[in-house]
Amino acid sequence: MEVARTRIIKIDPVNPEEPILVEAAEVIKRGGLVAFPTETVYGLGADAYNRDAVRRIFEAKKRPVDNPLIVHICDLEWLESVARNIPEKARRIAERLWPGPVTLVLWKSHEIPAEVTAGLPKIAVRFPSHPVAMGLIRHSGVPIAAPSANLAGRPSPTTAQHVTQDLYGRVDVILDGGETLFGVESTIIDLTSEPPKLLRPGPIPVEDLERILGTQISIPDHARGLSEAEIAESPGMKYRHYAPETPLKLIEALDYHDLASYSAKVLEIAEEYRSRGFKVVILASRETCQIYVERGFEVIELGSRKNFYEIARNLFNSLRKVDELRADLAIAEGFEERGLGLTIMNRLRKAARHCRILV
Ligand code: AMP
Ligand code: MG
């Protein structure tokens, strides 16, 4: 599947130029595909009411058709047209956190075609806060269905260059609004179940959602990146995801308080592989990276253990960098599963798939 030409258009991420938004919205209204920045990652958007346009998203991304999309709105009132039987809890979260990086799973309205939700009776909805995303939806006048703008299985795109690498020639327009803010996909919470269920950890920590709802949220193993979901309930879990081409091993610890002994163990594993002739690259925190550099390893620094936002933001770009370094093996450090640490570990575990080592 090829579209004739992909136009890459630079756009101001803070004050997006109206004529560019109008032009991109025309493409959406005509059933085309537009990649655009959001505060989480770049999305690949189409008119959520247009079945053919939505099918084109799946083709462009080579996405399995049973993996549902998130519908993006720019007005709280639109919630009624995409979802029904909306519980009070949804309004509470929406009032506090929208526009923002949290997605609500609700009962789907009949107007939304089945293609959007992969035939599921539930719909995932989000109101993004990025000015380009908001402007594009507003000018299009319709909800925009959008998954991340990468080829299925690849790390999500946090820059327009990542989108270009994956989707050039496969989409109509790429709006280049620079680097995204959070760098990981939205937190997804299913509000149709009791207690509410976390489907994907993201920039909004579960702890914050629990405080807003005043109830506990259940965190299934698959949301921690630990097992595969049976149906595409949170398909992030079902398919290979985020993975670099280079095999990735994730070295986890029960706790990360004794960083010196933890990094010594990571080093030991890395040296073991190097002695067998592997070219090894290590993804490490700022606190520990020097140890590996001193032993002559190539290191990709993820950020500080004291600032998980920094690590989350650098994560997907770092996973793409792994392939550029042409190593035989990448070894990643693990992080404490608290707050955004849960989000980071979910992505790393899925990128590493069956290669988790506990030290
Ligand atoms: P992506 O942005 O590429 O990760 O794709 C959107 C993600 O949203 C999917 O992979 C699912 O994890 C989630 N999602 C979308 N719709 C639903 C739904 N109806 N029920 C549960 N999860 C959903
Ligand atoms: Mg995705």
Structural class: alpha/beta
CATH architecture of the largest domain: Alpha-Beta Complex
CATH class of the largest domain: Alpha Beta
Number of helices: 11
Shape call: globular
* Residue windows where pLDDT falls under 50 for at least 5 positions: 229-237
Strand content: 15-25%
CATH fold-level assignment of the largest domain? DHBP synthase
Task: Report on the biggest sheet.
Answer: 11 strands, mixed
- E-strand count: 16
| Rg calc | 20 Å
Tally of separate domains: 2
Instruction: Report the span from N to C terminus.
Output: 45 Å
From N to C, what is the helix and strand string? EHEEHEHEHEEHEHEEEHEHEHEHEHE
Helical fraction: 25-40%
Task: Name every ligand kind in the structure.
Answer: adenosine monophosphate, magnesium ion
Question: What is the fourth-level CATH superfamily of the largest domain?
Answer: DHBP synthase
Mean pLDDT: 94
How would you describe the overall organization of this protein?
This protein is an alpha/beta fold and 359 residues long. The protein has two domains: 7-224, DHBP synthase, CATH 3.90.870; 248-358, Rossmann fold, CATH 3.40.50. The chain is 32% helix and 19% strand. The chain has eleven helices and 16 strands. The protein has helices spanning 18-29, 51-61, 79-82, 88-97, 131-140, 160-167, 206-213, 259-275, 289-294, 308-324, 340-352, and strands at residues 7-10, 34-36, 43-47, 70-72, 83-84, 102-108, 122-126, 144-146, 173-176, 187-190, 197-200, 248-252, 280-285, 298-303, 329-333, 356-358. The strands form two sheets. Strands 1, 2, 3, 4, 5, 6, 7, 8, 9, 10 and 11 form an eleven-stranded mixed β-sheet that branches. It has a five-stranded parallel β-sheet with strand order 14-13-15-12-16, with helices on both faces. Strand 13 (280-285), helix 9 and strand 14 (298-303) form a beta-alpha-beta unit. Helix 1 (18-29) crosses helix 5 and helix 10 runs parallel beside helix 11 (340-352). It is globular and about 60 Å long. It binds adenosine monophosphate (AMP) and magnesium ion. The site of adenosine monophosphate (AMP) has 20 residues, from strand 7 and strand 11. Residues 67-70, 105, 117, 120, 122-124, 147-148, 185, 188, 199-200, 233-236 line the site of adenosine monophosphate (AMP).
